[in-house]
Amino acid sequence: MAIISFITDFGIQDEYAGVMKAVILGIDPSAVLVDVTHAIDPQDVTQAAFMLESAYRHFPAGSIHVVVVDPEVGSRRAVLFLEAGGHRFLAPDNGVLSPVISRETPAILRRLENPALWLPRIAPTFHGRDLIAPVAAHLSKGGAADDIGPLLPVASIHRLGDFRARPDASGAVQGRVVHIDRFGNLVTNIDLSVMTPQGGAGPDRPLEVLAAGRVIAGVSRTYADVGIGRPLALIGSRGYLEIAVNGGSAQAHFGIRKGDAVGVRPRK
Amino acid sequence: MAIISFITDFGIQDEYAGVMKAVILGIDPSAVLVDVTHAIDPQDVTQAAFMLESAYRHFPAGSIHVVVVDPEVGSRRAVLFLEAGGHRFLAPDNGVLSPVISRETPAILRRLENPALWLPRIAPTFHGRDLIAPVAAHLSKGGAADDIGPLLPVASIHRLGDFRARPDASGAVQGRVVHIDRFGNLVTNIDLSVMTPQGGAGPDRPLEVLAAGRVIAGVSRTYADVGIGRPLALIGSRGYLEIAVNGGSAQAHFGIRKGDAVGVRPRK
Amino acid sequence: MAIISFITDFGIQDEYAGVMKAVILGIDPSAVLVDVTHAIDPQDVTQAAFMLESAYRHFPAGSIHVVVVDPEVGSRRAVLFLEAGGHRFLAPDNGVLSPVISRETPAILRRLENPALWLPRIAPTFHGRDLIAPVAAHLSKGGAADDIGPLLPVASIHRLGDFRARPDASGAVQGRVVHIDRFGNLVTNIDLSVMTPQGGAGPDRPLEVLAAGRVIAGVSRTYADVGIGRPLALIGSRGYLEIAVNGGSAQAHFGIRKGDAVGVRPRK
Fold first, then answer.
1. Interface residue of C12, C33, C34, C38 to substitute, partner B, most B CBs within 10 Å
2. Nearest chain B CA: its distance from A123 CA (Å)
3. Is the complex ipTM higher than 0.90?
4. Cα distances (Å, whole numbers) of residue B235 to A236, B52, B226
5. Are A19 and B55 an interchain contact pair (Cβ–Cβ within 8 Å)?
6. pLDDT tens-place string over residues B91-126
């Protein structure tokens, strides 16, 4: 028995996620299933990678993380098993495991190549159900990772080039919005932790944040540090720079979309 | 202890699904609860029937499938228990069990008529919570089906007339879009399996698909069989003909809505 | 092991709810997790209070209800533990527990003040993950409530002033729409139970309902009591007055928004 978490772009109007769970429970009835999100923007591998980084570390060691954002399903792209940092991951080889590979060493990488573990009939459009779900259940019930398929060199994994943006020596960094959350908070890929420990920031911090031609002075600690309706920058709960509006939506306030540029520079 | 799956039109902004689970866990704390979907279009019995067909077969034998799409709640329509193909189903008698009845024989049909199993107070607008949930839990904890209510003749069940469209002798078939998935794939009720085994189709297949006045030649195997942005027809993971756009939305591409006609005919 | 239910405004596109579950399962792997809803309108404490009232009573005694709608996260507002009516609640002190306090006595109230139970690092923007989730898991695995923090006088809790509207001696009451459900039903805060037991209403009831300048005569039992497309008032499954359209959306029919006034008065 293990925890199996899910990050997909299946949405929730379809039966796709439920059917993956059905397959898993048919093999390991005691698996504990946790939805992280099924609302990744269709085929947005970068957003899924970002969600995975934010989520997996909070699960107990030994958890199995299933990531199915798979624009190339049915083509020759590999499906991977990765074991790193005490966690296990199953995902197509499209870069979505980049944040894990960049954080956790050593890592063990395998390619799913044992059809004996899969469903008997493979639909070319739903490897999540027919390959990944039964392999997750195999692992969950204590099956060996060796059975899944051959080892691959970790260096062979597909990586997203510009996943994380970090400041240069001057403290300047150019990043972008990788996710907009339910509250309209603009989540960037800017990691300021090399400059300051998370939570150590404050409005007196000698930085300014640039977005949509506007400037936000300083990095706040929480939303209530500014007045209602006022914009702020802060280190979000994921550890990345976010732009928010206290009691409102930064997305509406700034008119920003996913992918738009955000900069940080030392305050003059 | 059994698996209980849910297909409803409750949506997820309300507490309806959570409250059904609360009632079930109060009676059988070890029930394993799996959401298939709560996003059936309000009162769309045909779409719910389609989802049920796609989902239930992937669950282990003995699972209990709760389907609550119930436009006539509080009227005199019956609430049914169906046992067929190793699965158990609870649903109003409005046609939603049609695909099960058409696939699985023999079947046992009962009408829920034992208030001793129900909640003490029945709200006329929420039989899912007050009748169906406690009966599901009764079954889940090993209670007898006999207790639920009297046997009914299987032939008495309400059926959807035109649920599945199949080709005639010439290979032609006229069907319609019964569901549009999260990716904008147009899922039809056209079942080509009488012509070819699922997955055995290919772009060389001598068929053409007609939708919104346009023609798609052949039936592909997977999205990547055509270029990015190009439309294709394929046998989807549910076993029915779907129309898709590689890396895009067929719904947007074709301007098609649920219910619109789709045809298949032999290629000239 | 206990049931832990969730009511939040996190939405489902983000990993927030999944990460709370991850934290809980890391502490109590046998906790049973039930989503009531994550779709509370952002920071709408009144709507969350309403959902909580509708949901918690259906869970078995001993359940733990986590409510995270927390506009003031990171400020000095307290996070509370409430034990009342056989249930346990964890929520910020912003009024969201009002309906429980008004229904259940006696009650025990504590303030979360024991960092030894929390995650080692507290993000100022996500107390749900870093404080509430680990405390819920502490309780779920049988930990003592005493460990959580000191007792507070129950009277000190923040209350929503006008949560429930009840008729005056003449039978008239002025309330408002507190929630619009997935079907477009307008859920009000009007509680007619002091006049008649739930379910005892009927179209012959000598009341009329006023909304958006229109009058609905009588209180029906269920949707099918009127013709398709016709509006009606009824006592919804939550016990409050709702305005609905049989087979349609009252929201669209009346052009009403959350917060709009609804009145009830004796029929002339």
1. C34
2. 6
3. yes
4. 43, 18, 15
5. yes
6. 999 999 999 999 888 999 999 999 999 999 998 889
